[in-house]
Structure prediction request, 547 residues.
Amino acid sequence: MKTDIEIAQSARIAAIPEKYLESYGRYKAKVDPRLLTETEGREGKLILVTAMTPTPAGEGKTTTSIGLADGLCKIGKKAVLALREPSLGPVFGIKGGAAGGGYAQVVPMEDINLHFTGDFHAIGAANNLLAAMLDNHIYQGNALGIDPRRITWKRCVDMNDRQLRFVTDGLGGRVNGVPREDGYDITVASEVMAVFCLASSVTDLKERLSRIIVGYTYDEKPVTAGDLKAVGAMTALLKDALKPNLVQTLEGTPAFVHGGPFANIAHGCNSVMATKLAMRLGDFAVTEAGFGADLGAEKFLDIKCRMAGLTPSAVVIVATVRALKMHGGVPKTELVGENLVALEKGLPNLLRHIRCIKEVYGLPAVVALNRFPTDTDAEIAMVMEKCEALGVQAVISDVWAKGGDGGAELARQVVRLCETETPDFRYSYELKGGIEDKVRAITRKVYGGKHVAVMPKAKKEIAALTALGFGNLPVCVAKTQYSFSDDPALLGAPEGFAVTVKSVRVSAGAGFVVVLTGDIMTMPGLPKKPSAENIDVDENGRITGLF
Prediction:
């Protein structure tokens, strides 16, 4: 059996039309944003792909998204993909890449999973330029009166590096800067990434960048990137990155791969510009949001759709029997073999995600069940029966092995939903409520929890942000991806739990308030055996070990 990278390397992608394109080699291109304005008025159906709560057994959300788009093309529909770019942190860490798998991949897989067109480097450079200008302003006399103890802006690097979470810099004497406590975020957690993905144009990008708050003065007034006169230079670094990247699937379906915030610590969606281009150029635009529906889909719907004026026509919820059995208490090493008891115990996790999409957000849904060779007919039948009881059809997906052919039935079901059901789209909360009210609404409606416990530090931060006029912004909850709760050990569909809010900060440029819960952190670390140990390059430059 071929590996993912061997399949990708054997593909030959058809040439892409050159109009509006800036070629990055043979199989990658940047798209001129003017194409957005010149296709205005045309809009295809937007299909969101999300998933049950993830487990180490894997769900295959990106693979399903790619296979669905190929499947739509197989049944005669014009489909375009809009996906996120992978971060080097997971690629070299534990999760691997994000270009799909098997015969449902976007290619060139190696490029997409590594440096691609350099967008993340540009975002990191813009982030760190702002940090450098901030520290330089303080060093050169601090005319704005910035309190070094209240600097909120961090440097970033696109790598899992726990050593950089907390640092002290500016040491070594006066010429080397002003000593202070500092830290790094992973690039995908940078507010510049969020701004980049939510911007609708270069002008909008500049306006958002100017609103970024980097710290506070001694008299507690916010200091922005605009105050530091950093916006023009930051935009200069980002202007080419802002152009969406165009690649293709193994079957030639166009795919925009652009931007990549994590969904557990940011809003978890590809760029607005890429999504709108996909909708303008296809009858169906297939996009995905990170992790489970409680994270990526919630933020896609409550933040991205609200800001960009988008309404999905249907939602695909990806699940596997293996993952459901893990939520039923079976360890990863014991997933082989029929276990209907564990499956029934784990199924409430999927069912809660279904109810959330249908009842909270009012959207038509279908379950894509990725079938593994170890799944039994009885297990498959149980999943389908439980989904049908909620009025949702579960469709077998076999896109890893069969590509578009394995996604054709899922594609037909998506088309049927779009033709027969009208979305009654609504948000899980209104903007006019306070920050705590919004977190409480998400906890109860989306997570299925009961209480929100706000720590004293977070209460002070909420009061301060509300006084500054940020109380009516959407909230972006940073939470573990492994549970509906903020405790990764609570699997399945826990009830009666409390979500603990430890810290709150504003991303004024992005336009939302970030709420940090549980033990979530914005700089991950590498595992005991990182994936980087398996990656190599032969004498011909051929990469191995990526997945």
Observations:
- Residues 119-139 form the longest helix (21 residues).
- Confidence is low (pLDDT under 50) at residues 11-16.
- The chain is about 35% helix and 20% strand.
- The first strand starts at residue 21 and ends at 23.
